[in-house]
Give the backbone structure.
Amino acid sequence: MDKSQVAAVLDEIGTLLELQGENSFRCNAYHNGSRAIQQYSGSLPDLVAAGQLSTIPGIGETLREKITTLVQTGKLPFYDDLKKKFPPGVLDMLRVPGMGPKKVKALYDTLHIDSLDKLKQACEAGQVAELKGFGAKTQQKILEGLAIASQSGQRVRIDQALAIAEQLMDGLKSCKGIQRIELCGSLRRRRETIKDIDILVSADDAGPIMDRFVQLPGVTNVTGHGETKSSVVVSLGIGREMVSMNADLRVVDEQQFPFALMYFTGSKEHNIRLRQRAIDRGLKLNEYELAGAKKSVPCKSEEDIYRALDMDYVPPELREDTGEIDAAEQHHLPALLEADDIQGVFHCHTTWSDGAASLEEMAEAARKLGLKYLGIGDHSQSLTVANGLTPARVKQQQHDIDALNAKLKGIHLFKGIECDILADGRLDYDDTVLASFDYVVASVHSYFNQPEPEMTQRIIRAISHPKVTMLGHATGRLLLRREGYKVDLEAVLKAAAKNGTLIEINAHPQRLDIDWVHAKRARELGVKLVINPDAHATGEIALYRFGVDVARRGWLEKKDVFNTQTLAQVTKALKR
Ligand code: DGT
Ligand code: CA
Ligand code: ZN
């Protein structure tokens, strides 16, 4: 079993134990263990084989045993037995907004509800309202939750969620009385996918702002409309897709704003650590205030709150409890990469292969964005479905690029290629053709189903080739649509370190590959990263900003990223 499967099983065990009524300490051990495994960047089987599992913080004796069994046998009798205790529909009920293990357990134990259909029927018949601890209000909430679950309930890609959030914020901004307005939650932390949008406003009078929020364009369902919080389902057309998701608005008074901002930005795990730090200092921290026994500590900003807890300011992208608390205490936080540090990007497609714009249009668009260079990287010959370039067409394109470079001002085009990595790790051109490029991105576009050792060897062979500058989209995943191929990234990163090959952060929001966990690991191993938009149209060049978000979540600084260098520096580096 691989890492993400193991993590999923652990998480589900935690939930099943909650359903069974186990104490929260025991349940949380599994949830936390799941998170720890997910964020471990190395190879889990190797760690198990070396007997080093317990070096991951949060993995105690019980979990160590279970993870070992899962990794070595792919099964866990304990988990199978636990699952058998509940019908599958019970687990579906857990995914309904507003339902937790306690409610699901009560409904299952008393009314024998074990499916979404039965849950809906019971609510409509008024049976749920009569249950102890439920009531009419809760019943109504569950019905609304069921409606949401059928409409959305799915995670949404960050680019789409951000587009929706920006429309909501724009709609709110003209409201009178708004003092501050900010996005919170996973959007502010720039996770790659988002469950729901969290907006925070400070104002003296929440009423009119709430009223506006629930009537904004795109709102299809109002699931809450209160004094301090309102919740809606919003459906908007983003590009060619209709996207539905939940959005919450909270309105607080100006004095509470920094505390609420910090709280609702999360992550929950980061918050828990902060709250503990406050307690250690004889203080209490929540979404309203930081306070001692007698009076509260005045804070105008998040910076003030961190300072009061003896920490440097932690940028939202780092708030995942993966070492940022200690680093902020010891003044060791990285000086994170900024979007403006990016001087140019590589790996862009044109009409020469499967792109929508010409060389000149792409160059012009990049120049308008303030970039100083653009790396053309059309597909190579074996990718015939994408009109990959034969050696003869490579020559013609390079001729055209030279001609363009002679006339373009303020932007330089690099002659590159996105070269397919063939099934055995060879490249898609002979060395003479390869030598004609300024740079080469090597990517896997075929035989995704190879067993992990084969795929790993294949990629390592490719990136060890002296003409390969960088590895494109390292796992080939498509977010929320396709899992990446099986590959030992730790081994790939080590090979990249050894060969001086760059690893791409593919900034296209459908990919964001490698992810932030591995970007962080790459930095630790001394691998340099390069942030590329994989643009297939002029409008996609600016997507590199999503790659900057990944880099920031991965603790990267300007010096860790190849394309923060000037045109002159990059030109020199590529000649080597
Ligand atoms: P998601 O799943 O993409 O919506 O991720 P978040 O982080 O936006 O999660 P969400 O929307 O459930 O909650 C927003 C923030 O509120 C979260 O990052 C931290 C805070 N929060 C929510 N529930 C709790 C909690 O039980 N304890 C603490 N300490 N913070 C919480
Ligand atoms: Ca959220
Ligand atoms: Zn590509």
In short: The longest strand covers residues 241-252. Residues 347, 418, 443, 472, 534 surround zinc ion (ligand 3) (CB under 6 Å). The CA atoms of residues 181 and 201 lie 4 Å apart.
